[in-house]
Amino acid sequence: MKHLLGIQHCTASDLERMIELGEAAKRDRGSAHSAHAKLLDNQVWGLIFSKASTRTRVSFEVGVREMGGTSLYLSARDMQLGRGEPIEDTARVLGRMVHGAIIRTFEQSDVETFAKYSGIPTINALTDEEHPCQIIADLLTVRERFGTWEGRKIVYLGDGDNNMSRSWMWAAERLGFELVIAAPEMCMPSKEYQQQFSSGHVTFTGDVESAVADASVLYTDVWVSMGQEDMEDNGREAALQAFQVNHEMVKKAADDAIVLHCLPAYRGKEITAELLEERQQEIFTQAENRLHAQKGVMQYLVRG
């Protein structure tokens, strides 16, 4: 039984294989003879979502359908989970009725518990801890543009302690590319968390100038993650202003640098409106690649 619970749980070969399958899915989309066209025939996959979604929901629903299966959307408020049923019981029930589960929720432990008790392939479609599906699409995008991530410097700017930054850290640790987390001190992960990345592939800095110098990828995300909108600011947004992705920052990066954003974007905050529009081809290709990456993930979990 294979699951995608987080990049931390993956090996380098797991990641490579899912990306390769995603690339093939993109190349072969629409072909009745593709390796995945009928893979989910007569299968129903449950999408269990406690958080709002655009790209994740659409990409998985379309992906399941294009692979011959049917998706069943289940929001938490429509299920007994919303009334306090233990995740273990929900998992045991759904594991007898559907063939796979795609879960977008708050607690990482909920996804891991579901996988343990359901007996079906389980995909983390976002938790507060990690967003592995986005990272696989991002790595697919980087390789599509440069041919490899080896020898490329990827810089993550903004909130250095959210699900996206943590997933990037684990990806760099597993695959061995250079990742720089550039963030104000108040937005950095704890020292204990940072100490898990001792290989030298991941560095943490508050120096924007050195971070973006010669970077191949400038990557950013919203400054306030979903579910944290009521968090007190305490000077956080003011500190993050220096890490906004803008034209001046791009000038300091490598000549062929790309700009990526996992969306949704708040123009004028983590990225300027002008730069987002200028680089929209890169950013929306990245968004499209969610569909192909999800197909690669499902194919890997079902077939290997």
TrEMBL record:
Locate the residues binding L-ornithine: N163, D221, S225, M226
Q: Which reaction does it catalyse?
A: carbamoyl phosphate + L-ornithine = L-citrulline + phosphate + H(+)
Places the protein is found: Cytoplasm
Q: Which residues bind carbamoyl phosphate?
A: S53, T54, R55, T56, Q80, R104, H131, P132, C133, Q134, C262, L263, R290
Give me the Gene Ontology terms describing cellular component: cytoplasm
Q: Where's the Aspartate/ornithine carbamoyltransferase carbamoyl-P binding domain?
A: 2-144
Q: Which residues are in the Aspartate/ornithine carbamoyltransferase Asp/Orn-binding domain?
A: 150-300
Highest taxon of source? Bacteria
Q: Which PROSITE patterns match?
A: CARBAMOYLTRANSFERASE (PS00097)
Record GO biological process = citrulline biosynthetic process; L-arginine biosynthetic process via ornithine
Pfam families registered for this protein in UniProt? OTCace (PF00185), OTCace_N (PF02729)
**Keyword annotations from UniProtKB, A to Z:** Cytoplasm, Transferase
Which Gene Ontology MF annotations are present?
amino acid binding; ornithine carbamoyltransferase activity
Tell me the pathway.
Amino-acid biosynthesis; L-arginine biosynthesis; L-arginine from L-ornithine and carbamoyl phosphate: step 1/3
Q: Which residues form the signal peptide?
A: none
> Which E.C. number(s) belong to this protein?
2.1.3.3
The family note in this entry says: Belongs to the aspartate/ornithine carbamoyltransferase superfamily. OTCase family.
Protein name (database record): Ornithine carbamoyltransferase
Q: Which species does the entry assign this protein to?
A: Sulfuriroseicoccus oceanibius
